[in-house]
Write a structure and sequence with these properties.
It contains 22 helices and no strands. It is mainly alpha-helical and about 600 residues long.
């Protein structure tokens, strides 16, 4: 209880007693005066009663006062306890504040000292680093100066050494020149002996040319797809044109004519060396120089045709291609006029006319084919043992068959197969002839009745494997074999043969499609059949980037192997854009062809 409550109770008690006394007195005064005199006993009894009531009230007030005092005492003790507790808390907080303040002050002093120490240390490290770098720069500069002096010294020594070597070689050259002069004097002194030496030298040169020609032999290759060839495929380095022209035949007139200058054989050797390195421009310069001196010499004229023939594989526009082809044809025909019995000339001319067939207008195609066919016929009649001529003849017939409607293909295909077989009889190691034979058999599969397809597929597969046994790096054969198995996997089947598709995929990858483009379109078709559409999209892009082995827009549109890809909702629109881009490029090429044709006219 509070102080107010304790003292208040006591005060109200005193007031209450006063009120009672005043009431009693008032009652006594205000009471009517009894006429009868009261007795002492009644009066004493009332006074006694009143005293009892006063005592009761007094006792109650005393009790309340004592209770109030007890409450006051307890309250005082509680207040004093709270005061002592507050004083204790105040003292404790004061001590704690002093301790914390002291700790913070000490910590701040420590941090300040540490910061000053760290700054000083970093400053010292920076000074040391600066001194170290200055020393390193000074050392490096000194080393570079020393190295420069060493290089200059070494260069001086090498210069002196080279000078001495040059002097030594010059002396040796002079001695050799002197010996040559002595030898020349000796040759001039003995003319008969000199003539014998010259004849022997010419014979050796003739043998060298013969051997070099054998090294220059290369095979004809055909396009990977059984599609009609166009001028665009020719200009995109389609394998209709050989990667090098067919082999040069050694002529017999190199040493037979009189009046040949001494430097003739040297120039011929240089030209053939450049041909071997496929440096056609350098070789052409040499042969043109020889043509000025020997305009009627078969070797010179034929070689010019051979060089221009090889240049057809360069990146030429249509006008340049036509012009180069005409030059090659001109010199081949002139060589055949000089020596009508040169089988190599007729064979090469036949190959050249095969290329000409595909860029000729429809009116002249028949005449060009007839002329090419006659060239191969003459070549094989003059030299029936020339395996390559038979193979080249087969290439002409095979590609003519590819450009014809289905009903007209069969006679040409059969004739081509006979030519390839004749070539392989003469030379079973002719890898290109095996590949060409397999290609012709593959085309026959598409035309044959169902009961003959299995046999033709086996024969074609065997021929491809024969070519690979001879040359495992023959990329075109890997592509063609993969294409054969792809066709076999879907031919006369409602669902593709997955095992054959996987084999075809592995074979096509061996053709290195990312490098040459060979096999890329096969892989796109296989991926579509396997419903691997992202891979199909990838290989179509690769194939498009290698136009020499890419199909035309019409083939792309109608190829059923791509139906899964073309009809997939996710890729359908992409394929339509892709096809439209191919058509646009074909249109641009056609317009460019027409423009070049008008310009050349």
């Amino acid at each position: 209880m509070s102080w107010f409550n304790i003292h208040g109770s006591w005060f109200f008690g005193v007031v209450l007693v006063g009120c009672l006394l005043m009431g009693v007195v008032g009652a006594a005064v205000a009471a009517p005066i009894d006429t009868s005199r009261p007795t002492n006993s009644d009066l004493e009894r009332k006074i006694f009663k009143l005293e009892c009531e006063i005592d009761n009230v007094y006792d109650m007030q005393i009790l309340k006062i004592e209770r109030s005092n007890d409450n006051f005492r307890h309250m005082k003790e509680w207040v004093e306890g709270e005061k002592r507790s507050a004083e204790n808390w105040y003292n404790n907080l004061t001590i704690l504040s002093v301790v914390i303040g002291a700790w913070i002050t000490i910590f701040g002093i420590a941090v300040t000292i540490f910061g000053l120490y760290t700054a000083k240390k970093q400053n010292d490290v920076a000074k040391e680093s600066k001194n170290f770098l200055e020393k390193e720069v000074e050392t490096f500069t000194k080393k570079m100066a020393d190295y420069e002096l060493e290089i200059k010294k070494e260069l001086t020594e090498r210069k002196e050494s080279l000078s001495k070597l040059a002097n030594t070689k010059e002396q040796e050259f002079r001695r050799a020149t002197h010996k040559c002069e002595l030898l020349l004097n000796q040759v001039q002194a003995n003319k008969s002996e000199t003539d014998a030496i010259i004849q022997e030298t010419r014979n050796q040169a003739n043998n060298f040319i013969h051997n070099a020609n054998n090294l220059l032999k290369n095979d004809v290759k055909i396009a990977p797809f059984a599609e009609p060839k166009t001028e665009e495929t020719i200009l995109n380095n389609s394998p209709i044109i050989t990667s090098t022209a067919p082999p040069k035949e050694p002529t017999n007139d190199i040493t037979s004519n009189k009046g040949i200058k001494n430097d003739y054989m040297e120039l011929v050797s240089k030209a053939m060396y450049q041909e071997k390195r496929r440096e056609w421009g350098k070789a052409l310069d040499i042969w043109l120089k020889l043509l000025e001196e020997y305009p009627e010499k078969e070797e010179v004229v034929f070689s010019l045709g051979y060089i221009y023939h090889n240049q057809l594989n360069s990146k030429l526009n249509i006008a340049q291609f036509r012009e180069t082809l005409q030059l090659a044809e001109k010199y081949y025909k002139k060589a055949s006029e000089i020596n009508p019995k040169g089988s190599g000339t007729w064979s090469n001319l036949g190959i050249l006319l095969t290329a000409k067939y595909f860029i000729a207008n429809e009116k002249n195609k028949g005449d060009v084919f007839t002329e090419a066919n006659e060239c191969f016929s003459k070549a094989t009649v003059l030299d029936p043992s020339q395996s390559q001529a038979w193979s080249n003849w087969g290439v002409l017939l095979k590609n003519i068959a590819d450009s014809l409607p289905t009903i007209e293909k069969v006679p040409f295909l059969n004739n081509a197969i006979e030519k390839f077989q004749e070539s392989l009889k003469l030379n079973p190691a002719n890898e290109a002839a095996w590949n060409n034979l397999a290609n012709a058999l593959s085309t026959q599969i598409e035309l044959a009745s169902p009961e003959k397809t299995d046999q033709l597929q086996q024969e074609a597969e065997l021929a491809y494997h024969k070519a690979l046994e001879i040359n495992p790096k023959y990329q075109e054969v890997w592509h063609n074999l993969g294409n054969l198995l792809l066709r076999k996997a879907v031919l006369n089947k409602t669902t593709p043969d997955l095992d054959l598709l996987n084999r075809a995929k592995a074979l096509s990858l061996k053709a290195k499609p990312n490098e040459s483009g060979l096999g890329a379109y096969n892989l796109a078709c296989i991926a579509s059949l396997q419903k691997n559409f992202s891979e199909c999209q990838k290989w179509l892009e690769v194939s498009k980037s290698k136009p020499a082995y890419f199909v035309n827009s019409e083939h792309l549109k109608n190829d059923k192997d791509l139906d899964n890809f073309k009809n997939d909702p996710e890729y359908k629109q992409w394929f339509e854009y892709f096809l439209e881009e191919i058509r646009r490029k074909e249109q641009e090429a056609a317009e460019e062809k027409e423009k070049d044709t008008k310009g050349s006219a």
